């Protein structure tokens, strides 16, 4: 219908769909009040949204309208995204924030989690009544955090810092701040965006663990000094008795003396093992790129005598470089190789070492063809002093696999054992790939 056909017609007859709708209500309102009316409304016949401006006069109405469907749809989608973002921030375990890269970290936005984290209302931080870096961060930590953030600005663009805050109620908490640096197109203006989470409980547990490790270290010191000297005396004087008075002892006496000396030596081995176990964390070297092929070659050289005596065969696939402590990794391989030799059964030991990539880690597996393990023992063999066989059957202190587990965990990995379908066992453990090789 063109404009000529519309002229002179009745609007309610021509556009009957508008009757009883917001359109009619607003038109009649303008006529009644003789005041202009503006509104937005949906018109089903066109499946469109219109913006209308209605101006009354003594003779009727002047209506100006514009199709705003695209604008309305864009606004609806924006509103949905805002709701989704709001819901997301409500479920993030921490305070989401955006601040200017200035001392004091003046906040431009903070999520509602600010209340539970710091006790302050988000608006107080956004309006500058409370300044995060001056009123909330503990004074002793401010300079260090600022320096680390500026290092991120000049370098990687991200940071992750742990520091203390003081809440509105005066309570001190530990928080973890994961942030990134963002800039405008000119690179002149910079902001910080991130998430701050409460890690007070984790920090408490870490402190308790550090105290526990310190006590363990103190025990290790006593074991290495105060306990070993009496054992050395027992072993030394027992040996003197055997050397000087062997001809005066009957068979029982010789057996008793042998038991005493052997017991002292076994106790010394156990103390040495505990000493190694307790010092995995404190005496370890920093993790650095390590070629496992070199580590395994050195380990095999150390146990060559046992390999020759047992007619063992150890084969090794191509091994990768990992991030690790050379000395401790040699201990892991030595314990696993010696166990494979010790528990080989009646057949000559056969051991095979493989490596498989698993994400950012390597899985190293040591497979043997020995006597194997029942599945019920798979977890407890990694516990200290938990042996599956008596000392009369097989030598050992019951510390070797526990030591392997502690070393692997220090490297951020896991260790486990599986029984082979055709006999024997496979010990596997994960180690982090070197950064340049990480996927």
Structure in words:
The protein is of the alpha+beta class and 439 residues long. It is built from 14 helices and 15 strands. It is 44% helix and 24% strand. About 1% of the residues have low confidence. The longest helix is centred in the middle third of the chain and has 46 residues. The chain is elongated.
Chart the SSEs and their pairings:
Blueprint lengths: L2 H4 L4 H4 L7 H12 L3 E7 L4 E10 L2 E8 L1 H23 L3 E6 L6 E4 L2 H6 L3 H5 L5 H5 L2 H16 L3 E9 L5 E12 L6 E9 L1 H46 L5 H28 L9 E4 H11 L1 H7 L2 E4 L4 E4 L1 H17 L7 E9 L2 E8 L31 H11 L4 E5 L5 E8 L7
Parallel strand pairs: 10-12
Antiparallel strand pairs: 1-2, 2-3, 4-5, 4-8, 6-7, 7-8, 9-11, 12-13, 13-15, 14-15
Helix pairs in contact: 9-10, 11-13, 13-14
Compose a concise summary of this entry.
With 439 residues, this protein is an alpha+beta fold. It is built from 14 helices and 15 strands. It has helices at residues 3-6, 11-14, 22-33, 69-91, 113-118, 122-126, 132-136, 139-154, 200-245, 251-278, 292-302, 304-310, 326-342, 400-410, and strands spanning 37-43, 48-57, 60-67, 95-100, 107-110, 158-166, 172-183, 190-198, 288-291, 313-316, 321-324, 350-358, 361-368, 415-419, 425-432.
Shape: elongated
The number of helical elements comes to 14
Q: Report, as a whole number of angstroms, the end-to-end distance.
A: 65 Å
Describe the oligomeric state of these chains in a short phrase.
single chain
Q: Give me the side-by-side strand order of the main sheet.
A: 5-4-8-7-6
Mean pLDDT: 83
Largest sheet: 5 strands, antiparallel
